[in-house]
Amino acid sequence: MFSKSRINEPGPKAGDQDTKAAAPAADKPAMPPKASTPPVPSSTPKAKPPASTLSSDIVIKGDVKSTGDIIVEGTVEGDIRAHQLTVGEGATVRGEVVGDDVVINGRIIGRLRGLKVRLTATARVEGDIIHKTIAIESGAHFEGSVQRQDDPLSGASKKIPAAAPAPAEKG
């Protein structure tokens, strides 16, 4: 690295004193680029952290919120909001589920809102689904209504009164 900076320096090679005087000057500017190396690791924290997993032996009574990813394997009695949410096969959620990307393998009792919603073959959902895109695999059990919205994460809160009469119509 240092040889390149010496090569690129202007000046005659005949004057050894000038070259020796320029060499320490070249070494000093070379040090600050090493100091600029620590900001590079600052981009490392931008790496996506691993998903938070609520294991099968855990029961949460209350709301769960995260800007990251959550994998639920246990029971949650409350609302869940996450960027990406995966509900495992043995998991049960009683409350509203909100996320950008929601994959349901287990049981949901309550409203589901997501930009991208997927119900796998083992999914059991009892409640309304408000989505931008949805995929329901063969074998999934679903009771409720499905409504498409361009922005289901923010617009659904305005639709709460409209969604409340839907269960009364069924009974």
Q: Helix tally?
A: 6
Q: In percent, how much strand structure appears in the residues?
A: 35-45%
Q: Measure the end-to-end span.
A: 77 Å
Order of helices and strands: HHHEEEEEEEEEEEEEEHHH
| Fraction of residues in helix | 25-40%
Rg, Å, rounded: 28 Å
Oligomeric state: single chain
* Poorly predicted residue ranges: 156-171
What is the tally of beta strands?
14
Biggest sheet record: 8 strands, parallel
- Choose one word for the global shape: globular
Average of pLDDT = 78
Give the structural class: alpha/beta
Structure description:
By secondary structure, the protein is α/β, with parallel strands linked by helices. The chain is built from 6 helices and 14 strands. The longest helix has 20 residues, at 16-35. Mean pLDDT is 78; it is low at 156-171.
Write the layout of secondary structure elements.
Blueprint: H1 2-7, H2 16-35, H3 39-42, E1 52-54, E2 59-61, E3 64-65, E4 69-72, E5 75-77, E6 80-87, E7 92-94, E8 97-104, E9 107-109, E10 112-119, E11 124-126, E12 129-136, E13 141-143, E14 146-148, H4 152-155, H5 160-163, H6 165-170
Parallel strand pairs: 1-4, 2-5, 3-6, 4-6, 5-7, 6-8, 7-9, 8-10, 9-11, 10-12, 11-13, 12-14
